[in-house]
Every structure is written in C-alpha cells, then in structure tokens.
Amino acid sequence: MQNRLVLSAIASAFLAGEQSVDAAKERAIRALGQRWRWVGPLAQRYIEEYAGKTRPTYRAVVRFLVDDHGFADAWMTYSRKIRVVQWLTDSQLMLPVRAAANWDVPPIESAGALADWLQVTPGELDWFADLKGLMSVTKSSPKLRHYYYKVRSKGSGGIRLIEAPKSRLKKIQQQILGGILNGIPTHPAVHGFCKGRSIKTFVTPHVAQRVVLRMDLENFFPSISGARVQAFFRTAGYPGSVAETLGGICTNATPQEVWRQQEFKFDQRQMKEARRLYQWPHLPQGAPTSPALANLCAYRVDCRMAGLAAAAGAVYTRYADDLTFSGGEEFERRVQRFAAHVAAILHEEGFRVHHRKTRVMRQGVRQHVAGLVANQSVNVVRADFDVLKATLTNCLRSGPDDQNREAHPNFRAHLDGRVGFVEMINPAKGKRLREILDRVEWR
Is the pLDDT of residue 367 over 90? Predict the structure, then answer.
C-alpha cells in the first residue's frame, strides 16, 4: 500500500508543472519531505524519457517508475523510511509540445476549470464525458443516453452508424469546436471541413496530370479511438484529467442494445464487425467536433502521405476519407507499387484502405475525383449537369411539383443548392442553370 502511495505522489509531482530536471526533482522532494539522493537521477531519467514528446498519462508515468531500476533499488533500501508527507494539489500547467506552442487554445489546467469554461457543473461534466463507459455497458433508458442512433447501409456495402448528439451535449461540443479546435491549424493537404478550402481546392492540384490515384479509407471516423483523441488534447498541452475529459465528451462507445433494436437486416459478418468497431470509444459520425478532430488526429498520416508523394514525384490531398495522389511519367511508372506502400503506412497508423474503391486513372480515361472531373480542368460530370439542366427545364415547362420525385421538403432550396454547387465549380455552366431556375414559378 505504501509503495502505491509513493508511486502516486512521485508521478503526480513529475506531471504537475514545468518539465525540467530541477523542477521535477523539487516537486518530488516536496511530496516526500526529504532530499533523497536518488530523486535527482530519477527526475533526470524521467525528463530524458519524455522530453519533447506528448505529455504522458498518469498511468504511463507510474509504469515508468515501476520499471525504473534506480527507483526499485532505492525502494529496496529505504522502503521503511520513504513516506509521503505532502500531496501536491496545484493545478497542472499547460505543457504543449513544441509544434503546438503557438496554437490558439484557451489554457484550462484542471477539471474544475474545464467545467467553468463549459458552464456546467463538475457532476454534469463527468456525466457527459462518461469516462467509465456506463452508457455503453448498462441497459439505460434511451432518454438517458447522449446520442440518437441510426443504422444505414453503405452504398459500397457495409454498415454506417450515424450518432447524433442530443442538444445539451451538442452545445458543449460546439463550444469545444469553436473555442479550441478551430484555433488549431490543419495540414495543408487537408481540404475537407477546413475554412477557406473546398472540394474544388481538393481536386485542383490533380488537374491535367498523367495519372491520378484515388484511395478510400474504411470506417474513417470510428477508426479514430478515444485514446488517440485524448493524446491529441495532451499534445495541445492540456493536463491528463482535462485531456481525458475532453476526449470523453468528443467520443462515444455505442450501447449494444442499439444493434438489437434495429429493423434492418444485415449480413451477420458485417454486423459482427460493426459491433466490434463501435463498442469502444471512437469519433461519432454526427458530432460537430468529429470532422475537425479527425483531421487533427490524422496529422501524422498526412505528413507521411505528403512526404511519400513528394519522394515519388507526386502531389497529395485529402478530403475526409478520400485520399488522392497524382503525378507525371515517373509517378505513372511506379503507381501500383506506390499504392501498396500507402496501404502499408495507413495500416501502421491504424487505418484500413477500402481496396475495392482504389482507382488508377490515366489520361485516356475520365479522371473522376470526389464527383468532379480533373482531366483538363476542374469540372462537374457532364451526365450530372445534363440531368440537373433537364430537371430545371421541366420545372420551367410543367411546374416543379412533378419533378420532386424524392419528396424533398424544400425542393426549391434543394435545387438552389445544386445550382450553387455547379456555380462554385464552373461559373459559366452555373450561370446558365441559374437563369433557368430564376424563371421557375413557385407556388
């Protein structure tokens, strides 16, 4: 018991503030109440282990101490004399890694400060974070759960789970998005869910290339675990308790009852895989924080992809789970081997390629990226343009009611959005469609 108390006190002292040998040593001495000669070398080894790295978790520091031979020798020699005389109750300081030092994030140094910042009580904070996973393992009423669930079948096969947060949790997540995540820069190759970037900027670097390689990630959001999200918040500098709570608020473990209550019939293998994937804390597809966190947690992936592409004479961009590479003759010669290398790296990083959706498109075929054509310029697909033009023309001739075959509740807004998309991609074509839409008579 005494050993555990000493381990806890030293770990807390090492984590509490400035990460330097002298500071860590002095905090440990304050906790133990005596200037043990072995404390200085122990602090030195701790700083060497974690210097320049993401702030470790409390559990990781305890494991470090247990495995440290110097501490084990000191305990064997002085175990009857080593005592904890003072528990350090100071809030842990913000300790971002060097690359995150200039991120525009609010300093929050304790769980209590986080509750104040989110304008909730500490009890409500624990309930929304659900770090013990009670919502996923207990048969709680759907009214007590934090999410609405909808199971959908993917067009390419498989199961997609939409997890939409309820109003109070959604409001908290929106504050985290606006107050923390939006102040952190994303990788330059990322174009999805980024201010000032779009599907057009995603495709533009691949225009008029000899070969375009398109790859797709399977289960992008649920593949990003709660542990990875918590590690990201520690990278930003937040103390362990704050990072864990923020991670808990932004992730979810799906209750098993959700799968049993669905009307849909899926392949048993697919259902088993979905249950396994969603049972652990993950980024929920439907939470306002998930797109930004997915981009930020995949930063290392983007660095590796961009570096690999540059070495192969190619360019790289990503839009959510769509990865696109393109290049000239040199890249064309090695594109198949390059794709295999990409898949291996993604596997190392915890992601999986949807191989059936991988496409190698040379100049002789339509280079189709994210629903757009990239052969000579960024353009909409001709067939899609023709269908939309025909729909608008029929609305003009016989009225819009007969054309709303999918029963859109606001068909006018739906068509306006589709025309606006064409205007963004190809202003000239968009102008022609807009002229037709403006002449339609709406009741």
Answer: yes
